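# step 3/5: fold
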Amino acid sequence: MELTRLRRTTRERGTTHALTVHVVADAADRRDLRELREFRELYAAGSPAAVPAPVWDGYDEEALLLLCRDGDRPVGALRLTRHWAERGELLPYFHELPEVLRADPVGFANIGRVLLAPTHRASADVAAALFHAGGTWCARTTPLRRYASAVLPSVVRFHRLFGARVSHGPVPAPGIRDGLVLMTGGLRATAEATAGWLTTRRWALVDTAPPTPPDLWQRP
């Protein structure tokens, strides 16, 4: 199901460029997501910056999985998992979560496994579209108000662009040369910040009515 549609017309050539962000919902979507992840793991395997993660893990079964396409081609993805102060995928890296996260009894969303195709890494457009769609979906349909993301120091500036701030780190992480930084932000604020940023880049955005998320996401 489509969450966000973006269109931009190039003035010089008069051509229209389209991006869509939608929920991973069927076998074709999962195939495209796996291909993106497999390429990322192959890329990471030759890099000293990260250790390859499993292409699919247990968190995926209850996660909100988003896929971005440029036309028919998958060019980006991210995963949102629900996290509590005492339970979630960030705890192996940040044993003591900052008070800003621990104080919220409903927990928060964790944004992870953000992937961009090599052809779309020079621009933050695809990442912004994914963060906008994910933030909008969670803010509208779940009790969650905040999110966190463990990122490499080299991409902190992009998360700041989307309205997040550094809450902790960098901290050591196995196989990751420069460690991980914990970024936190508001879901609605990030949705609005990315919408504004994309608009300045001459993208026209249309958000559709988001689907109801799984029960895990709706519980207070």
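# step 4/5: annotate
The first strand starts at residue 2 and ends at 9.
# step 5/5: archive (pending)
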